[in-house]
Design the sequence.
């Protein structure tokens, strides 16, 4: 019976040395991409000091551990703390809390959005780009109805920097007296990439609050 041979991850584009996953220097190999397509590898011995420095900068700023292919097979690479994909999914705070209208979080280079039928359908207007499209579609699927609530900004210590919540105002949560407000709750150390999910006026209001909280 023939044994399955372990295949190398690839070969150096310059010296053809094989790159093995278990090799002690495997983490020091550089990957070469052209328009999102992997076109080669460079072993540590073949890298110039400039190429090594560039790779160190990219490793610190780009999330290579959570890439995702697009429709053409090219790898989408997000900045560290950012995202390349926006996805609607269920969240226990929205499903069980009922006072939470929307949860937004970044995890594994994916922006995850959760809404429920209790959510205010006008929340989609606060977002921008692909996030607005996903939020609007999710609200429509939940058959959420539009309201006329004012949005206030509420930094909360203890909330993770990668999570944003839209929740009912404290009065409604505590004694049922609806003040007609929704609180956009976020950490004072908010992940700055999350600002890109919001429409410009909302993002600027968040920046102002963060400056005051600093």
Sequence:
């Amino acid at each position: 019976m023939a044994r399955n041979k372990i295949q190398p991850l690839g070969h150096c584009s310059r010296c053809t040395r094989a790159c093995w996953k278990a090799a002690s220097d495997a983490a020091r190999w550089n990957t070469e991409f052209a328009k999102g397509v992997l076109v080669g590898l460079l072993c540590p011995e073949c890298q110039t000091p400039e190429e090594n420095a560039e790779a160190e900068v990219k490793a610190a700023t780009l999330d290579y551990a959570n890439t995702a292919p697009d429709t053409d097979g090219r790898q989408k690479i997000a900045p560290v703390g950012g995202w390349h994909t926006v996805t609607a999914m269920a969240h226990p705070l929205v499903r069980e809390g009922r006072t939470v209208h929307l949860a937004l979080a970044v995890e594994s280079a994916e922006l995850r959005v959760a809404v429920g039928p209790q959510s205010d359908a006008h929340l989609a207007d606060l977002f921008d780009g692909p996030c607005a499209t996903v939020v609007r579609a999710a609200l429509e699927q939940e058959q959420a109805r539009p309201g006329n609530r004012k949005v206030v900004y509420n930094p909360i210590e203890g909330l993770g920097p990668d999570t944003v919540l839209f929740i009912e105002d404290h009065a409604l949560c505590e004694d049922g007296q609806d003040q007609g407000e929704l609180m956009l709750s976020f950490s004072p150390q908010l992940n700055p990439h999350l600002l890109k999910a919001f429409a410009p006026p909302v993002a600027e209001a968040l920046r102002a609050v963060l400056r005051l909280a600093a």
Notes: Residues 200-213 form the longest helix (14 residues). Helices lie at 49-61, 92-97, 129-141, 170-175, 200-213. The mean pLDDT is 88.
